[in-house]
């Protein structure tokens, strides 16, 4: 039923709950898994003459990469493989557009995300995606 399943990864407990649900579905339907994390580079703080602190994007990308590596490890422990993708931009837009581009059949997201400034992936992102995509979405607590 679902050939390609995307899981939004942000390091939150809810995201890992979503990952576990997606793993179960992938096993049931023999689906491809896509693990995606989005570094929110669209809403960085601005100061006069400086758009953001030096190294901030690198730090954000490193944190998101670590989250993806952890998720990849969980997938491997379950006996599956997954494609990982680190995206930059506005998370809501990326999580609506990327699944379309990859012909994803199901988006699996946590209900709430981390509250860390560096990775804004909060419930409002889940709500936005659910309202702006025509792809099936599973929201996990």
Put simply, the count of helices is 4
Calculate the mean pLDDT score and round it: 89
Helix content: 40-55%
* Span between termini: 23 Å
CATH hierarchy class name: Alpha Beta
Rg is 15 Å
- Strand fraction: 15-25%
Number of strands: 5
Overall morphology: globular
Q: Which structural class do the helices and strands define?
A: alpha/beta
Q: In CATH, what is the homologous superfamily?
A: HUPs
**Count of discrete structural domains:** 1
Q: What is the spatial order of strands in the main beta sheet?
A: 3-2-1-4-5
The arrangement of helices and strands along the chain is EHEHEHEHE
Low-confidence segments, ≥5 residues, pLDDT <50?
115-122
Q: What is the CATH-assigned architecture?
A: 3-Layer(aba) Sandwich
Task: Summarize the biggest pleated sheet.
Answer: 5 strands, parallel
CATH fold assignment: Rossmann fold
Keywords: Cytoplasm
Domain UspA: 1-140
Subcellular location: Cytoplasm
Pfam family, one: Usp
General description of the model:
Helix content is 43%, strand content 23%. The chain has 141 residues and is an alpha/beta fold. It has a five-stranded parallel β-sheet, with helices on both faces. Strand 2, helix 2 and strand 3 (82-89) form a beta-alpha-beta unit. The longest helix has 22 residues, at 56-77.
